[in-house]
Amino acid sequence: MPTLTISTLQKGRIRVADDQLTTLVTPLLGFPALKRWLFYQTEDGPIHWMQSVDDPQTGFCLLAPFDAGLDPDIELGNEDVSDIGAMDASDIDVYTMMVFDRDLDQHRTNLRAPILVCRTTQLAKQVVLHDTRLPIRFVLPDLKPIGR
Q1: How far apart are CA 140 and CA 99, in angstroms?
Q2: Is pLDDT at 101 greater than 80 in this prediction?
Q3: DSSP secondary structure letter of residue 53
């Protein structure tokens, strides 16, 4: 299996197999040229990282909302599922981008523009949902630990 060395913002240079990389079928909003990404964790929990393979200065902190105890009631269209080669929604990991603020009580995530990753195809896309019940600025102190 071919491998690649990737410079990450959180772990420095790491070596990964090609099949660990995720390809966006449509570009991330604001980053039209960046198609290949590495999704990884630095520790167990709902926090993940999304690192551009082609631009080492571009990476994002992500929240896996369902792993964080949230149930944002995200409704995916058939096209969203088929675009990334998933058979159904159970084959998809859902992530939301996090924004860190100087005021620790204002760290937030956007539940209305999740990133969908198919586990079997390693294809992904960001979708913009029109459900106004999903906040664009969900403040993270609102998170409740799982099991409480």
Answers
A1: 10
A2: no
A3: S
When computed from its CA atoms, the radius of gyration of the chain, rounded to whole angstroms, is 15
Place of tokens 């949230």: 70
Parent domain of 47? 3-142
Using the predicted structure, report yes or no on whether residue 145 has a pLDDT greater than 70: no
Nearest Cα neighbor of 117 from 43, 13, 40 is: 40
Asked if residue 9 is part of any domain, the answer here is yes
pTM of the predicted structure, to 2 decimals: 0.88
Per-residue pLDDT, averaged over 126-130, amounts to 93
Q: Does a structural domain hold residue 148?
A: no
Cα separations in angstroms, 17 against 21, 39, 134: 7, 12, 36
What confidence tier does 141 reach under pLDDT thresholds 50, 70, 90? low
Give me the CATH number covering residue 106. Answer: 2.30.290.10
Domains contained in the chain, number: 1
Length of the chain: 148
